[in-house]
Amino acid sequence: MDYIKERTIICRACPICDQINEICNGKLYLEPISGKTSIKPKPGYYRGCNCFLKQKIENPKSSCPAHKWNSV
Question: What is the pairing mode between strands 17-18 and 36-38?
Fold first, then answer.
């Protein structure tokens, strides 16, 4: 279950994470290396998945759309 703690830390630090509603914001795009965000698609940017983080983080088969973490 260490992956849950690790994923939680990564998601909570992510600039497209909606901290209040605990959702990966599907209206924003993230460039994972620089951490820059955009409201429009750009090369090298990944769209937020709009998932509820608790369910996504706890599912061992899920992965981050910005490739910040992968399935276990």
Answer: unpaired
pTM: 0.88
Place of tokens 């990564």: 10
Decide if 64 is inside a domain.
no
Cβ atoms 66, 32 nearer than 8 A: yes
Give the strand pairing for 29-31 and 36-38: antiparallel
- Asked if residue 39 lies in contact with residue 29, where contact means CB atoms within 8 angstroms, the answer is yes
Per-residue pLDDT tens digits for 46-64: 999 999 999 999 999 999 9
Domain count, the chain: 1
Nearest to 18 by CA among 45, 65, 53: 53
